[in-house]
């Protein structure tokens, strides 16, 4: 799991903006929480490894997570809120090419724990929001 996150975030295409990085983090977190199963390994990785991201924000990555995780949790419990959050993420991801990169990364991430039914429903919502 940790290697997958490193691949997703540390080998992004050149020219990725901070806004796109934040959208990718939000999408992956939403995906991780979508199956109501966040493993200890995933949480440890969030706490320790995401520091290594090329993070160009006025706030630390840890502070960003503290701000966004409650929003992600709330969105997982409310369909309309999740749809609005996904629309916001889609807008911040930008062009269709990077949206597809985000979807591909998310699918690889979600396949890791085998929660297929819940995640297929979530991926349908993601595809709809991304208009791909």
In short:
InterPro entries: TerB-like (IPR029024). Helices cover 73% and strands 0% of the residues. It has seven helices and no strands.
Describe the structure.
InterPro entries: TerB-like. This is Co-chaperone DjlA N-terminal domain-containing protein. This protein is an all-alpha fold and 132 residues long. The chain has one domain. 73% of the residues lie in helices and 0% in strands. α2 (18-34) packs antiparallel against α5 and α4 packs across α5. The longest helix has 17 residues, at 18-34. It is globular. The two termini are 26 Å apart.
What is the topological layout?
Layout (H helix, E strand, L loop, with lengths): L1 H9 L7 H17 L5 H9 L12 H16 L2 H15 L2 H16 L4 H15 L2
Helix pairs in contact: 2-4, 2-5, 2-6, 4-5, 5-7, 6-7
Please give a handful of descriptors for the protein shown.
mainly alpha; globular; 132 residues; 7 helices
